[in-house]
């Protein structure tokens, strides 16, 4: 049992994880609890966390070795960090920003960097990009399928759009 950040309540993280995904594998590491659930129902997760008053710390988008996008939801459960990893299917995940407004900017950032669509949002305004920029700044591959450095790709793309003025 650990105390949550809100109202000094105690929470059993193991019980929370079992409620979220009965039978789902997870582990306690030095840096918190970790679960990799590719088919995680992120909306059910967000509803449960809100009901239990667990704070969303942030989300991380990171390309997987197979070209998929892994999204990790980081939660503050008192004395522990809870990290729940899922996979964007065909570049799409359901939004949780209507359930947890703190997710709004993070979803927009992940959209800008990886062209991920957060289904259920009325609009997804760019956060880091200009209105005229296409999402997917950190595309991991070039047109011919070779690995590229995201920073170099982004600068080259922006410079080409601006006629080399940057």
Q: What does it look like?
A:
By secondary structure, the chain is an alpha/beta fold. The chain has one domain: NADH:ubiquinone oxidoreductase Nqo5 subunit (Beta Polymerase, domain 2). Helices cover 25% and strands 27% of the residues. The strands form three sheets. The protein has a five-stranded mixed beta sheet with strand order 3-4-7-6-5. A hairpin with a 5-residue loop joins β5 and β6. The longest helix has 12 residues. It is elongated. The termini are far apart. The N terminus is likely disordered.
Corresponding CATH superfamily:
NADH:ubiquinone oxidoreductase Nqo5 subunit
Overall number of domains: 1
The count of DSSP E runs of length 2 or more, i.e. the number of strands, is 9
- The CATH topology label is Beta Polymerase, domain 2
Beta-strand percentage range: 25-35%
Largest sheet features: 5 strands, mixed
Overall pLDDT confidence: 83
